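note to self — DONT lose this again. spent like an hour looking for the file last time. sequence + predicted structure for the chain T wanted, 456 res
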Amino acid sequence: MADTTDGQDVHWKRTAFPRRSRLAARLMLLVFAALAAIPLVLIGGRRELVYWRVAAASRQFERGDQAGGLAALESLAGRFAEDEAIALALAGRQFDAGRLADAATTAGRLTRAASAAFESNPAAGASLLRAVSLEAQALTASGNPAEALGKLKPALATITRRVPEAGPEFVNHLAYQRALAGLETGVGLAAMESLLQKREEEPFGDVTRLTVDGRTVVAATLLAVESGQYDTVRHLVDLRVESLQAVRELMETGLLDMQIALERALPKKQDDGEPAVKEPGSEEIQATLQANNWELAVLLTARAFALERTDHPDDVDESARARHLVRRLGHDSDAILAALPDLRGCIDQIDQHAPLLDTWGLLQLRLGRLDKALNTISIACVSAELAKRLVTRRLGENPGTAIDPDESALRRKHSIAVQRIHRAECLMALGREAEAETDREFVRSLGFDPADPKLF
């Protein structure tokens, strides 16, 4: 037994110590892991603290202490020079404070860093876009729109080469900058018209083949009906129907053929050096006429729908005439009405396309096409204001809606203010000073200064 016991004792001694060694080793590994994690925790905690300080500096700025808020952000930017969020916050607050040169410098540094990062990482395209957009905005506000255009063009071209699907959304951005700078406006107009033409095939309820300004008018008309603004309905549909009827008359009387013959005899280059656009032949004229008829039918259907909701006898008669015209055009107004989008779809439509129409109208203004510009910008203004009203009063009361009124209110107000200023500029060019002042007063009522270059 002694031998057995001694053997067991020896066995115990030989196995116990290794077990203790393994336990100690595991404990040591845990200690080392914890020690290794401490810097990561500290870094994460420090980052949280930094962003908390950014938020605190922004609140300080909003309370009226611009100098203190900017000093805090500048200190953070100096300590964390590579941090995009801090640099963007600083550039934005410099812009808000009117330190436009500083804002352009800060955003420019960020643009160069993002551009370098984008060469190896396409995901950095979003950072590059944010930075160069802010840089361009600061340069434009400081009276250097041409320099802003020079910054935007290569950056957007670089992003589009690496991320082709992003190209279309940059067309409006670049065209708007061309309009602000008053440079390459013919190029900008051609790019916008190409973009708008492509958008015609996008879903709009079950209705297709509708121009962007036409579908925006229809969407705004349905919103006007929803909010009971029947006078606005007449104004909206008239804006578009008059334009369509003018085109229709040109086509049906043969005047358009004469106009095309004259234009084909003109030099092959336009004033801005761009190739002249080749006009369509007779088959294309017929196709355009058919599309024109379809859009007229949709607009007249929307108008009839609106007029049928009033109590005025004249409106009932006018609605009947509108439906009769739709039948003469070869379409069924009830079928069209059933195919139109719902309230949510109409607001989405306006949110997407009112800014495009505003840019298009501003380019028309720069090229001296004043009546067209006023028509286009007016559609953008009225439709955007209707969307804002419906979102705030109706959808904003529904907790299930996808729209957050608090989040979107300032963006909508700013967009509407800019559109109204563009329309005021157009009215001034037409010699309608009183109407232009009405638009400027409306901008003031939104809390903006029409003369503030930072608004654009």
